[in-house]
Recover the amino acids of this structure.
């Protein structure tokens, strides 16, 4: 089957019931989405599909179809950071960083859908995302910074 | 075993520092390519100057997400006077880096940032290079300066590090007299430096152990017993025969699966039919603390002035309180993972262990291979906060790889991780103390009970974690026995001696405080579950119990909690952080309120302090909380913390650790608790073991660094978390008059404490 991931089409060999996460990690070699719980409880495996955040550890690869999957790698590169990634770099918003797919992609999805989301709405969107190092304060600050910058960047 | 070069040609793991490393291999043969070549007394084992002038440093203290890689890179850059970008750090690889034991216990900074280890190596290297330059340039060493790896004389001659030793050995011993650059000379240390892994992390490029790939690698899963103490009866291999090429591995009570893909391995692990004998029933959770106090125990007296019983008998009113602390989990975000490539004579294991060298020895003994044929390479996992599943998964991966003769990547499930980890210990503390007529504490008697089974495996104890137990190894034996009188000097690594005690042993008083009528007795009993170091091990439990009881005494004395603490302290550094936190929090002197506000939201403020491990970092914290009278929900709104960890290498790193530590401590204080039924642990995922998610409305946090000069660098990763639960508990009392004597402070417990006599 073929999968469209981060703008590139990949031909992969996988049983249709295989969780998308295993295909992204083992067939395509991506490191951004990661196995945290395998039960959609923590957010480490988050990807964006059809504008929504999806827990790739419980989504069978056959459910993806021809729609594009965006992983943390798909936002920006070390040389060309996405402004949200830049805000996280600037705020030092991580410790171990294992949770970042969930934090960054969920924040992106909510702000894409609702650019003027309040702090509370952003927090609610992050309700299923876990960071056990508790870098929460810095992360929320980075997201707020990006949200503000984004507002000003959008032409009237 | 494939060479490092072949491995990397396949696009594999661990690229850190490889280019500099390969140059030294080419130039010098098998230099540092095997553990037998490593000698921590020799400079060449720590530092290599490449032909291009790059510096490669080898450290036995690794980055677990706490930022120590960045700080160590700063340290080497500072001592060698080169930019940070010139330094590459190789962390915890048993064939390259010196054995520095385990990266734990807030010991990395004390070990590598004072007068030994990596700091001494870097200082020795700078002095050695200056010596070589003086000879080469024909000028006295004292007239030389170094900028950017170039040694210059006063007359403008210069020579680079690369020209002096690039690609060659130093052939120097570490020089204990080598001078560190002093605090006032620092240009790289002491400055906030962005953690070096940041960009790779934010873009998903960072390599965790979970993304390590080895050519020909298969995928493993383990099948754990359904309950503690269960033993294997039989495995029905036919139950997975529909999955192609699945191998079932059984060794004593260890059962594992190896398959070609993760999906197949996970399916096979679910499908495999295994029969187990039942283990013994577990002690009931509801009465567990009482159970702990009745079990046979190994007893230790830390201090015993011999007069507490008499003093308390003669006192007008004896204050008594019993504090309890539940088992808690590391609950690492990642279920643990490791990759092992075991061949007939050699083994390589990519592991997120904090203990690369000890893990190597244990794996060698489990695989029955010579120690020096095993190589453990540290690759970071998710934050571990202590002994999570990283060691166990590494042993298991090695066993699976050896059994199938192919490299195996082993991924634990969430249940494997949470049901079998070495938990943070449950504790009970009983205090008895009395006030004198002047309102000061006249005697303090403290007795505590600690549940213990297993620990870090160290170099020779596989049975201290679940994998070893299943393979037939015994955990460390706990031999019950009475306490001997305290001797030698005060040992307070676990902070079981409250800071207000004088801590006198054989006439020498090593405590932080002034109370001379003192006794501290510890009972260690056998835990039904594995236990092990969890961030601030026993320190957080003991500090919660002591700092909240101190508040009870303060309320009894009708005194101000800050003044009351200071009145019982003699340690200037501890007093200084208490004052600094109070000042930054704009503390107004007041006796503790016992009635609370009239409205629905009751506000309160609490303070707590610690001298971590008795001399490894000082912290004081002021917590503001809001308690909802109707629901019993506690919400911390603000923390102000003062930290003294000596000279700070990376202020941004310490700040990040401090913020995260406080919030992790808050999560542990408010929601975290291991649960079990008569057979097994039942908190095995994020629904049944609670943690605060990112939607939690976070308090503000303000950090004050008290940074004395001319003192050794101390630990900073565990001080703030240690004081958080106590300060929250004290603030709840200030808000409501309810004294919380057990964790977590759930709404049900808070309501019950607020309305004694009523059934919640």
């Amino acid at each position: 089957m073929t999968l469209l991931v981060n703008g590139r089409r990949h031909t992969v060999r996988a049983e249709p019931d295989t969780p998308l996460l295993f295909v992204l990690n083992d067939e395509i070699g991506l490191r951004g989405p990661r196995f945290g719980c395998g039960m959609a409880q923590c957010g480490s495996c988050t990807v964006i599909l059809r504008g929504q955040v999806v827990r790739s550890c419980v989504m069978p690869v056959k459910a993806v179809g021809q729609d594009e999957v965006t992983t943390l790698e798909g936002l920006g590169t070390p040389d060309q950071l996405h402004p949200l990634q830049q805000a996280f770099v600037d705020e030092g918003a991580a410790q171990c960083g294992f949770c970042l797919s969930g934090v960054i992609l969920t924040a992106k999805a909510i702000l894409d859908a609702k650019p003027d989301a309040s702090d509370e709405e952003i927090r609610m969107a992050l309700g299923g995302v876990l960071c056990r190092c508790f870098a929460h304060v810095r992360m929320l600050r980075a997201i707020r910074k990006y949200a503000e910058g984004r507002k000003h960047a959008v032409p009237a | 075993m494939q060479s490092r070069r072949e491995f990397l040609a396949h696009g594999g793991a661990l690229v850190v520092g490889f280019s500099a490393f390969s140059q030294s291999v080419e130039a010098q043969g098998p230099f540092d390519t095997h553990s037998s070549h490593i000698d921590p007394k020799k400079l060449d084992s720590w530092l290599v100057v490449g032909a291009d002038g790059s510096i490669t440093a080898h450290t036995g203290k690794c980055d677990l997400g706490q930022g120590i890689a960045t700080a160590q890179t700063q340290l080497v850059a500072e001592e060698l006077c080169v930019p940070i970008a010139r330094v590459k750090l190789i962390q915890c690889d048993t064939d390259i880096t010196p054995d520095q034991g385990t990266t734990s216990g807030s010991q990395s900074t004390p070990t590598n940032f004072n007068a030994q280890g990596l700091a001494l190596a870097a200082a020795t290297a700078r002095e050695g290079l200056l010596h070589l330059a003086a000879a080469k340039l024909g000028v006295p060493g004292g007239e030389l300066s170094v900028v950017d790896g170039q040694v210059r004389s006063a007359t403008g001659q210069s020579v680079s590090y690369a020209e002096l030793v690039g690609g060659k050995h130093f052939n120097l011993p570490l020089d204990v007299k080598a001078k560190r650059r002093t605090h006032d000379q620092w240009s790289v240390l002491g400055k906030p430096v962005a953690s070096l892994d940041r960009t790779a992390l934010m873009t998903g490029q960072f390599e965790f152990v979970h993304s390590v790939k080895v050519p020909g690698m298969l995928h493993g899963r383990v099948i754990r017993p359904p309950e503690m103490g269960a033993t294997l009866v039989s495995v029905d291999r036919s139950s997975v025969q529909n999955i192609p090429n699945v191998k079932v591995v059984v060794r004593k009570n260890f059962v594992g699966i190896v398959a070609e893909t993760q999906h197949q391995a996970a399916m096979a692990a679910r499908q495999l039919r295994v029969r187990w004998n039942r283990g013994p029933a577990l002690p009931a959770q509801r009465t567990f603390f009482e159970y702990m106090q009745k079990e046979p125990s190994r007893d230790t007296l830390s201090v015993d002035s011999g007069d507490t019983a008499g003093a308390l008998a003669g006192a007008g009113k004896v204050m008594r309180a019993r504090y309890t602390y539940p088992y808690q989990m590391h609950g690492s975000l990642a279920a643990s993972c490791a990759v092992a490539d075991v061949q007939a004579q050699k083994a390589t294991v990519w592991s997120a262990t904090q203990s690369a060298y000890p893990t190597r020895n244990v794996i060698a003994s489990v695989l029955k291979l010579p120690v020096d044929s095993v190589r453990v390479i540290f690759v970071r996992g998710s934050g571990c906060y202590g002994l999570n599943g990283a060691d166990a998964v590494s042993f298991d991966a090695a066993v699976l790889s050896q059994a199938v003769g192919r490299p195996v990547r082993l991924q634990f499930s969430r249940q494997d991780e949470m049901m079998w980890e070495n938990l943070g210990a449950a504790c009970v503390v009983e205090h008895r103390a009395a006030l004198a007529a002047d309102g000061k504490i006249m005697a303090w008697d403290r007795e505590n009970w600690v549940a213990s089974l297993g620990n870090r495996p160290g170099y020779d104890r596989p049975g201290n974690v679940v994998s070893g137990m299943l393979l037939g190894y015994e955990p460390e034996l706990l031999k019950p026995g009475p306490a001997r009188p305290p001797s030698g000097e005060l040992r307070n690594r676990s902070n079981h001696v409250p800071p207000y005690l004088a801590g006198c042993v054989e006439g020498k008083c090593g405590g932080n405080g002034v109370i001379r009528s003192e006794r501290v007795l510890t009972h260690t009993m056998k835990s039904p579950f594995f236990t092990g170091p969890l961030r601030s091990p026993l320190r957080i439990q003991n500090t919660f119990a002591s700092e909240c009881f101190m508040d009870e005494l303060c309320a009894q004395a009708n005194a101000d909690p800050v003044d009351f603490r200071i009145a019982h302290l003699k340690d200037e550094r501890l007093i200084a952080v208490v004052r600094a936190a109070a000042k930054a929090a704009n503390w107004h002197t007041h006796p503790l309120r016992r009635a609370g506000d009239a409205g629905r939201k009751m506000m309160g403020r609490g303070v707590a302090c610690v001298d971590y491990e008795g001399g490894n970092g000082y912290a004081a914290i002021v917590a503001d909380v809001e308690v909802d009278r109707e629901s019993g929900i506690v919400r911390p709104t603000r923390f102000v913390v003062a930290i003294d960890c000596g000279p700070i290498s990376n202020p941004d790193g310490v700040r990040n650790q401090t913020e995260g530590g406080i919030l992790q401590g808050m999560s542990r204080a408010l929601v975290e608790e291991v649960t079990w039924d008569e057979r097994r642990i039942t908190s095995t995922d994020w629904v049944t073991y609670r943690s605060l998610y990112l939607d939690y409305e976070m308090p503000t946090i303000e950090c004050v660094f008290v940074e004395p000069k001319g003192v050794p660098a101390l630990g900073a990763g565990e001080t703030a978390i240690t004081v958080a639960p106590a300060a929250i508990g004290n603030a709840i009392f200030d808000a409501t008059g309810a004294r919380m004597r057990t964790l977590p402070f759930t709404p049900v417990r808070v309501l019950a404490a607020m309305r004694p006599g009523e059934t919640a």
